[in-house]
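User: I'll paste a sequence; please echo it back and then give the predicted structure.

Assistant: Echoing your sequence first, then the prediction.
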Amino acid sequence: MENLMNLEMRLLQDRCGTRAIIEHSEQNAEWIFENLIEKGEQWIISGAPKAGKSRLALQLALSASEGASFLDFKCPRKQRVLYVDFELSPRISAHRVLDFYKNDREKLIMNKSFYKCSDHKIIDVNSTNHCNLIKNIVETLKPDLVIWDVLARMHSADENNNIAMTQVMQNIRLLSCGAAHIVVHHARKEIYGNGGAKSLRGASSIHGEADGVMALALENSKMKSYSLLFSTRAIDDPGKIWLKGDGLGFIKVTKIAADEKNKSQLILGEIFKDQTTITKAALKNFIEASLEIRDRQAERKIDELVLSGKLLKTKKGREMLYSHVK
């Protein structure tokens, strides 16, 4: 009996003791995209209706299947990808994929790592019978990455119930059979800027269960300007990324337009077209989106506009308000 207990203790030490901790720390990360998504992780791509979240998810999926970079995040090799589309018909979904290849059928056929399933309009991940057909596909393909588009069509639970949505997100993990997976999910539309993960629709446990969130927002429709905010658990936050709509996909923007002085005037005219005052938070979000700059840069730009006499700053209670000096 004592020998058996000693054996069990040695097995626990091998599995959970300090040597095991050191061994785990020395393991190399198995990246889907380097310094972003790791093997087995659960991520969310969120966005308001028509913000382009499904297009971003498809761009990511095709990049992974080609072994190509996604918004400068390097893909170390071609990944086997399964895209499960619950929203679009097989015909429309197929056309969207072809559009990414600029209708080059030969180039698409050369991609042996991308698979798309549009057979189902809704499943319930809390029902074993509902999941069996798709689970068989996942188990047969053994993908590196699965895209589930969209969360609302994967359950019948109360989306605002934390306990219920914890179970839903955990069951999506099980359905993914150990593969990294991305769940496309709706977000509330913000009046200004990108609300990030806090704008996710439904229970907080949806965010809490995920390893990371990419929140997409259309910041300026005229300029086709988008932003991407991250919420991460195991990696450094990449910060706010500015994107330009490029056909169906998105390209990362790294430069600001040259004629900033005239642009600032146009932006101020747009901001104060229908209002005489604006809060600092709203003003900062608008300037970030319009000039495609980050938080601190936007604050410096506001200070510059105040010093140059183009903005008037007044305090009302605890809130700072700004008005345009024409």
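DSSP finds eleven helices and 14 strands in the chain. Confidence is low (pLDDT under 50) at residues 255-259.
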